[in-house]
Amino acid sequence: MGLGVLEGAKPSQVDGFEVGWRDDRGEHRLPLSDAVSVPFETGRPVRGFPSYRGQRHFPGLYWSATTGGHVGFESWLERDHAMLLDFTPEVAGLLSQPLWLFWEDERGKRISHAPDYFARFKDGRGLVVDCRPLDRIDSRSAAKFAATHTACEAVGWGYRVVGEVDPVRMVNVRWLAGYRHPRHGTDDGLAARLLALFSVPSPLVAQAALLGDPIAVLPTVFHLLWLGRLTADLSRPLSDATLVSRAEAR
Length: 250
Known about the structure:
Layout: H1 11-15, E1 18-23, E2 26-31, E3 60-64, E4 69-73, H2 76-87, E5 91-96, E6 100-104, E7 110-113, E8 117-121, E9 126-131, H3 139-155, E10 158-162, H4 167-177, H5 188-197, E11 202-203, H6 204-208, H7 214-227, E12 230-232, E13 243-246
Parallel strand pairs: 9-10
Antiparallel strand pairs: 1-2, 1-6, 3-4, 5-8, 6-7, 8-9, 11-13, 12-13
Helix pairs in contact: 2-4
Organism: Streptomyces laculatispora
InterPro entries: TnsA-like
Protein name: TnsA-like heteromeric transposase endonuclease subunit
């Protein structure tokens, strides 16, 4: 189901929800069914990221290569998932704390929830993400996540509750994130030669060294891996012998 299309959604699934968001013009609130075409990914967070002494979580800002700006996070887990969304080539937009979702529970009590992220894909799809270690989802959170899933499904957005990431994959993605900035891809000639050189799976360092000093060449290799133009098995630790290939070759 695409954005803005409500066919197949029961009225009760849509009409019970409202959505609030912020942008450069101020704060807004509408029935969810009237807000499906809002570009939430270009707005502003609906709440801040407090920092105080003795805090158990670690808030901060992550610079996104996708947006060219900062994305807030309230924990290392949220930071990792912001990085993974930034690492996804199909993602075109990303915002943390993007909206408030409002509804009433079965007792008529007003409930609100601000998901952690809203991502927009290049094909127009929306994705709402909540980050929580799966063993720390209590009944209250589970009820909010279930309602959020219902709301997202009704308007054609994807929804995920995500927990801890495979540690090896995450270490590899963090390493590649160090080369996410466009400055590592300014030599178009070198990038073209590397893509040709890795037209078949080849050892990372030995193949890169064919084009010069690895210290000079590898940053562009890592940048191409970040962009998804080169690929490697990130379920194993990156090493000199990691097989790298052009994406089209896999």
